[in-house]
Each structure stands twice: as structure tokens, then as C-alpha cells.
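Troubleshooting log. The previous structure file for this entry was overwritten by mistake, so regenerating from the original sequence record. Sequence copied from the archived sheet and checked twice against the printout by T.R.
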Amino acid sequence: MSFAIKSLTAASLIACAFAAHAQSGETVRIAFIDPLSGPFANVGQNQLKSWQFAASTKSGKANPANVNFEVIGFDNKGSPQESLNALRAAIDQGFRYVTQGNGSGAAAAISDAVSKHNARNPGKEVVFLNYAAVDPSLTNEKCDYWHFRLDADTTMKMEALTSFMKDQPKVKKVFLLNQNYSHGQQVAKYFKEGIARKRPDVQIVGEDLHPIGQVKDFAPYVAKIKQSGADTIVTGNWGTDLTLFVKALNDAGLKIPMYTYYAQVTGTPTALAAGGDGEVYVIAYGHANHTGEVGKMSADFKKQFNDDYYTYATYNGVNLLGAAMAKAKSTNPVAVAAALEGLSVKSFAGEVTMRKTDHQLQQSMFVTKWQKVSKEFPYSVENTGYTFAPVKQMEPYVASTPTSCNMKRP
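Regenerated output below.
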């Protein structure tokens, strides 16, 4: 009898230990859906490598769930419709986690499709990790339980950027240049609202919205900026649209301060370096000169790919998934989604928290400035001899903005 009790107790302990680590050793596959061909392919290829690198670095014992992460790329060609085709293919192949970021139109399409799929297919739910699509509507009127945003949205970035710009006395006449889709339109809208509150003396002397990924020569836009008398440019452009714009500024010899969202993204630093020194700022949740674990990852990524690791949302995304899976004791998307709500993890710039009300990550923001590398800030972006050096860090509450999300939970 005593032996039977001891055996039963030992079995119970083993069962409890297994239950506590039920997900240990599992492989979690993540479908990456973004442009891998077309005008923004260079950005998509970098970010796919970034997800894969973060997944590899943070697999196994490097995360509290002891799971292995694997990221597979699906080319959406920058199109919402192609994104839906890629999503269907990923789900058919058994993926339960998807990530996307380049284009808020694609993000909205994926979020809606994931929500409908999950409602119609209980037991086959999918979680959507949005790592870079920053249209505020995705965590406001279009918020969805299965959507989690890792980047800061446009209202957050603009709240931080205008808080910095209000203290720059040289900023008096601003020209807004943006891509003509939801992101670019939102950048213009929220800049005008934010600067009016904080520096009502600042004038908007010009504004242009151009077709995304279609303009080959930005010289006419640069000419308009010159004619406007602007002393400052604000742009949310990214990828080839920002790279070609910088080249046109260089060709025209126009050097005025420029405030950007994505000047650190593939291709643009090389174009900036061709123009030499210039007063260019970036508002983002990270910068090129972090130390610690993410600094080592940046150095290792450069050694492996001769490319820059700048999408730190991949680091936060994998860390959050690992922590949520450990908390849920499962890799099941239903349990993991519930565990992600309100979850806080340590990041490269303090703690980050996935706000429960709207699934918008709350995190520190940085303003960085383009300058030559130095002993203090040594990371050479795209091997140019230049870097983006932090000039101001803002705690999460500074950039945090309210939400109108009315989350419907399953």
C-alpha cells in the first residue's frame, strides 16, 4: 500500500511538472507576410531576416517557455489582396501565428480576415502580431482581440515627436511630404493637430501626398519645398519613397532639418551619407546604438548578413510570445492571446506592456539624430560612417495616447 501511494505521488509530481512545462520543446511557426518582391522588397527582406534572427536567438532555453521559434516568409507584394492570399496559404499550412507590418492597408485586411477565420473555425485560431503598421484605427475603431501591435502607432510617435519639436526654436515653417495612403495621411493629420496644441506659432507652408511606391523622381516635390520657404520637413515616408526623396534633396543641394519616422530603414542611410552632414531626426521606439543583449544581436546580425538589425519589434515580439506561452503553459493561440493581454516584459529600453484595452504595446520612445560615428555612438549604419544617435528618450507615459477601442472578447 505504501509503495502504491509513493508511486502515485511520484506519478502526480511528474504529471504536474509536465503540465507546468507542457509547451517545452515545441516548435512555434510564425508566418511572415510582407513585400519580398517589388519596390519595397529590400525592406521586407531585411525584416524577414530580422524575425528569423530574433527567433533563432531567442529559441529554446533563451525564452521562459523553452519553445523553438521558426519564421517563414510569404510574399504579399505590398498588396492587401495578396496579403489575404498569403494568409490563406499560411493557415492551410498549419500556421497559427502570423506577423506583418509594411502597410496599414494590408494590416487591416489581415486583422479582419483573422477575426472572421477565428469566429468560423474554433480550435484553429490564429494570432496576428502587427510589428510595424501604425494606423491608429487598428487599435481604436478597428481594434480586434486577435490583433496585437508591437510598434507605436502614429498618434504615439507624433505625440513624442511634437513634444520634442516644440522646444526647437528653429522650427517655424514646416512642409509635410507623405505617401498617399492611410499611414501618410495620418502622419500629416496628427502632426498638424499636435503642433497646433504645442507650438501654435508654427506654420504649415506646404503639404503633398504622393502615390506610394510609384514616384521615380522627387525633384518636383523638392522644388515645391524650396519655393514654399520651409525651414523644416516632416515626412512619414519609408523605403524607396524616402530613399529617392533624400537623393532628390541631395541633387538640389537643399539642406534643411528633416523629421522622419523611417530614415533608419534599408537604403535611406546610404542616401543620407551621400549628402554628407545633415540635420535629420528619427522618432522611433529604439535606435542604432543600444548596448546589452539587443546591442550584441545587432553586432551579430551585421556579421552574419552585413546588414542592419533595426526592427527591434522582432525582439519584443519573440520575448512577449515566450513569456505569454510560459504564463499560459501552452502554445495554443487561445491561451496565448489571453496571456498576452496586459503582459509586461523587460526590453532593451525598460519595461514594455501590452495594454489590455486595445492590444497596443506601451514603450519608451527615442528621438535620434544623424551624425558621424563617435566613441560614444559607434554603430556605423549601413557601413556609412554615420549613425543615428539618441538625443532624447521619453518614458512610455509621454507618448501614450488614449484609445476608443471597445474590445469584443471571445
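The longest strand covers residues 386-394. Archived copy saved in two places this time.
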